[in-house]
From TrEMBL:
<keyword id="KW-0862">Zinc</keyword>
<dbReference type="InterPro" id="IPR055438">
    <property type="entry name" value="AstE_AspA_cat"/>
</dbReference>
<dbReference type="Pfam" id="PF24827">
    <property type="entry name" value="AstE_AspA_cat"/>
</dbReference>
<feature type="domain" description="Succinylglutamate desuccinylase/Aspartoacylase catalytic">
    <location>
        <begin position="47"/>
        <end position="234"/>
    </location>
</feature>
<dbReference type="GO" id="GO:0016788">
    <property type="term" value="F:hydrolase activity, acting on ester bonds"/>
</dbReference>
<protein>
    <submittedName>
        <fullName>Unannotated protein</fullName>
    </submittedName>
</protein>
<dbReference type="GO" id="GO:0046872">
    <property type="term" value="F:metal ion binding"/>
</dbReference>
<keyword id="KW-0479">Metal-binding</keyword>
<dbReference type="InterPro" id="IPR043795">
    <property type="entry name" value="N-alpha-Ac-DABA-like"/>
</dbReference>
<dbReference type="InterPro" id="IPR053138">
    <property type="entry name" value="N-alpha-Ac-DABA_deacetylase"/>
</dbReference>
<keyword id="KW-0378">Hydrolase</keyword>
<dbReference type="GO" id="GO:0016811">
    <property type="term" value="F:hydrolase activity, acting on carbon-nitrogen (but not peptide) bonds, in linear amides"/>
</dbReference>
Length: 346
């Protein structure tokens, strides 16, 4: 139990309530202060508990819209169990239009948190020790952020355990996106520091998305967030109605893009402005030019070419054009019509 974060509402009480997670803080302007994160609880009888989270990164907006809309529209009579909603985890980052908090913290690298740390650490600790344990499923809605633009997708990290993998596949399909991206563990990142990594470690059913990016929320990607969220909640059995597949909705079958290849990630080699040459979802061949880095201070200098390191389709492309060496500019994966076609190991 956290001694530095509390909820202003009773999360176990029946009915609908809106309040705040109250986090102890101390600022230059107020030695005794609190930092308040909005939280909504809707409970009706016995059933699963689903935790809906958005705004993990401040510049990813579709989830924030979808979670806020759900919080406004949901009635207790719609629910069979309990839904807890935090429409924006990273409030200060969202207000600033940035991925990270003003302190420089990436909230999605803050787990399991620290009860006596900074505000972000205290919030991560509360999720880890209070909200995750009481939840059966966790939904962490992302959308690429300013830096990248994804094929709007639900996605997962490949699991070695086949039972766990099947569970993750089912969650991934529930969002009804046209594409599903399958990733390895993030390069250079401790998976235990990630919000979904902690939820998965605790054995929770996990739903994750990347619904676009480049800091832009279109009508289409926002609607995908809202529709996918409701279908995922139906899949959990926590709201009325039966979940529907893409086929039942009259949509094309989804495409699975395997991003686990050793040459999937492509990075900038120079400083400049990156120009995408190949669009999202387009097929590429190894050796094909996928982007150009322009040195704008010296227009007489030819643009630096970035070449595809493997065959596949562009699953992720650059959003924000300004790059420095090491910035990822594209991720290329191999498409499959079924997960059964995907190799066990790469």
């Amino acid at each position: 139990m956290s001694s530095t974060v509390s909820s202003s509402i009773d999360l176990n009480a029946e009915g609908k309530a809106t309040g705040y997670l109250i986090i102890g803080d101390s600022t230059n302007n107020s030695g005794w202060a609190t930092f308040n994160v909005p939280i909504i609880k809707v409970k009706n009888g016995v059933g699963p508990t689903v935790l809906v989270l958005a705004g993990n990164h401040g510049d990813e907006y579709e989830g924030q819209f979808a979670a806020a809309t759900l919080a406004h529209e949901l009635k207790a009579s719609d629910v069979k169990g309990r839904i807890i909603i935090i429409p924006c985890l990273s409030q200060e980052a969202s207000k600033a239009g940035t991925r990270h908090w003003p302190t420089g913290v990436n909230f999605n690298r803050s787990f399991p948190g620290n009860e006596n740390g900074a505000v972000s650490d205290k919030l991560a600790h509360y999720l880890t020790t209070e909200l995750f344990p009481m939840s059966d499923a966790v939904m962490d809605i992302h959308s690429g952020g300013r830096g990248m633009y994804f094929l709007p997708c639900s996605h997962m990290v490949w699991a070695k355990d086949k039972k766990q993998r099947a569970k993750m596949f089912a969650s991934m399909l529930a969002w009804n996106t046209s594409h599903h991206l399958i990733f390895p563990e993030q390069p250079g990142t401790n998976p235990a520091s990630l919000l979904p990594g902690e939820a998965e470690r605790q054995g929770k059913t996990l739903f994750t998305t990347e619904l676009g990016g480049a800091g832009v929320a279109t009508f289409e990607t926002t609607q995908l967030a809202k529709d996918g969220l409701k279908n995922a909640l139906r899949t959990c059995g926590v709201i009325d109605g039966a979940p529907k597949s893409r086929v039942e909705l009259g949509l094309s079958a989804p495409i699975f893009v395997d991003m686990r290849g050793p040459n999937a990630y492509h990075s900038a080699t120079h400083t400049g402005l990156y120009e995408n040459i190949i669009g999202l979802g387009k097929a590429v061949k190894k050796g094909e030019v996928i982007g150009l880095i322009h040195e704008m201070d010296h227009p007489d200098t030819p643009a630096v070419q970035i070449f595809a390191q493997q065959d596949g389709v562009v699953g992720v492309m650059r959003g924000f054009p300004r790059v420095t060496p090491g910035d990822v500019v594209a991720v290329i994966g191999k498409p499959y019509s079924s997960t059964d076609e995907m190799p066990e190991n790469i």
